Amino acid sequence: MTRWAMGEWRGGRGAERWTRGASWNARIIVGLSWMMATAISCRPPADTREARDFERMREQQRYDAYGPSRFFNNGAVMQAPPAHTIPRETRVAESAFPLPIAFTTGRSSGDTSDYATEIPIPVDDRLRALGAKQFEISCAPCHGAGGFGGGPIAPNLVDRRPPSLLTPAIGALRAGMIFTVITNGFGRMPPYGWQLSPVTRWAVITYVRSLASQPMNAAMRADSVEAASLHRLDSLRAAGANVEEMTRNPENELRR
User: Which CA distances in Å does 38 have to 7, 46, 155, 239?
Assistant: First the structure.
């Protein structure tokens, strides 16, 4: 067999192998494309998936507070705390047993009008610091950093402004009454009893009672200015002035 003939023979075999390989590659590509198309077509629409995920989040596999439980022997979810333990949010120094009834109710007795006149736990620097921190979080947005009533939310509460906490009327309130207001809410003020422990509520009252003696800072000055401005706007509105039109006019001097 000549070299030319042998090369032609080898070339024919190589071409045959290349053709066979290309055929298999094409089959694989077609098969993968078909599988991807099938997977995409079987996937539920986006809105269906979102609805399913939302339902899974809304109806979580969890225990309700007063529901049954197969885990505990008594069949209840809520369990009594172990003997000789105290809540972690209550400091040991404040947990001299028995705690006065005013600690959790704000009242010195079972009489609903018998509000405690004083804070029923020891007042120290730690309690004051806790009250200052929580006041900034829960109270200052409405009542203002200085308690003047000019917090960031106050301009939106047109029907009923947050009161100043520095007035003689607020200062004359008994500690237990303020505790009850924080616990149950009052007017537009929401209840905080579910969110703040009794210690934290008494800490806030401690800080509120010390507002008049706090050194003035920039946030407190801004609160005072805003509260005075809101008071002036409310007075004009009560006199029949179109305050909304006046505040839209850039040349008005209501806030100067």
Answer: 46, 17, 58, 73
Instruction: Find the domain containing 27 and state its range.
Output: 3-43
| Residue 95, domain member (yes or no) | no
Which letter does DSSP use for residue 76 in this model?
Answer: B
Residue with token string 């004083």: 118
Cα–Cα distance measured from residue 177 to residue 182, given in angstroms and rounded to the nearest whole number: 9
Could you tell me the CA-to-CA distances from 177 to 20, 37, 63, 94, 112 in Å, in that order?
A: 92, 69, 35, 21, 10
CB 122 within 8 A of CB 93: yes
- Any domain includes 28: yes
Number of domains in the chain: 2
Closest by alpha carbon to 203, among 117, 107, 135, 113?
A: 135
Query: Which phi and psi (to 5°) does residue 143 adopt?
Result: -80, -15
Predicted pLDDT at 44:
58
As a whole number of angstroms, the distance between CA 146 and CA 228 comes to: 13
Q: Does 124 reside within a domain?
A: yes
Write out the H or E segment, with its range, that includes residue 183. helix 175-184
Q: Please compute the mean of the pLDDT values over residues 233-248 and round it to a whole number.
A: 75
- Nearest-Å Rg of the Cα atoms of the chain is 36
Total number of residues shown for the chain: 256
Average confidence (pLDDT) over 50-78: 78
Q: Which amino acid is at 173?
A: L
- Do 29 and 134 lie in one domain? The reply is no
